[in-house]
Amino acid sequence: MAASVVAKLRRGLLPQAGLVPILQTVRYGSKAVTRHHRVMHFQRQKLMAVTEYIPPKPAINPRCLPPPPRPPKEESGLIRLLRREIAAVFQNNRMIAVCQNVAISAEDKLLMRHQLRKHKILMKVFPNQVLKPFLEDSKYQNLLPLFVGHNLLLVSEEPKVKEMVRILKAVPFLPLLGEQVAVPEGGEMGWVPQSLVPSARNILSLMEPESTA
């Protein structure tokens, strides 16, 4: 009885023939470190220092040279939209006035916009970098000297100068620089410029000293 029990225990504990035990003790050898920086021989260092390439200095300092031409910037969709809107404003309106866009309160500007809208006079604001190229290639070139700082346009399909001037008189700190009104001349529609900016001749006459008798 005891012999059979011992035989069963040996059969269960000892590995059977043809089977590999699950746990095996493996001894790994030390790995050589090959990632460290290998020091160059001092003679090779001297040779590399002597034969090092030194590029020649440019005859002209690069800072003195003109900058290279920049690639042309593509127009954004906003610029194209503003250009079409400006062309439509100048084509569909017979009265175009230019005012200086001074810093006024939002309430005063809203009230003035409401009063102008009663007479179908609209207030338009466009950036000068888009408006000036349009004026240079159009028949409104005489309005170019007025667009120096921040400006706004008062446009109307009908020439309503009296109503516009009456409303602007109530806002003395919003100067009217000039306007262009389309009036019929000889059966054809023509543009009459009316600028409130003094001409160069008038400015020179004011600057000259008065002649003594």
CATH topology of one domain: Alpha-Beta Plaits
Written as H for each helix and E for each strand, in order along the chain, the element string is HHHEHEHEHEEH
Reading off the top of the CATH hierarchy, the class of one domain is best stated as Alpha Beta
Helix fraction? 25-40%
By CATH, the superfamily of one domain comes out as Ribosomal protein L10, N-terminal RNA-binding domain
Shape: elongated
Subcellular location: Mitochondrion
Pfam families: Ribosomal_L10
Main location: mitochondrion
Organism: Castor canadensis
Name the descriptors.
213 residues; alpha+beta; Alpha-Beta Plaits; 5-stranded antiparallel β-sheet
Structure description:
The chain has a domain at 77-197: Ribosomal protein L10, N-terminal RNA-binding domain (Alpha-Beta Plaits, 2-Layer Sandwich), CATH 3.30.70. It has seven helices and five strands. It has helices at 2-13, 42-50, 77-92, 106-118, 128-136, 161-169, 200-207; strands at 95-100, 121-124, 151-156, 176-185, 188-195. It has a five-stranded antiparallel β-sheet with strand order 2-3-1-4-5, with helices on both faces.
What is the strand and helix layout of this fold?
Layout: H1 2-13, H2 42-50, H3 77-92, E1 95-100, H4 106-118, E2 121-124, H5 128-136, E3 151-156, H6 161-169, E4 176-185, E5 188-195, H7 200-207
Antiparallel strand pairs: 1-3, 1-4, 2-3, 4-5
Q: Would you kindly provide a brief summary of this structure?
A:
The protein has 213 residues and is of the alpha+beta class.
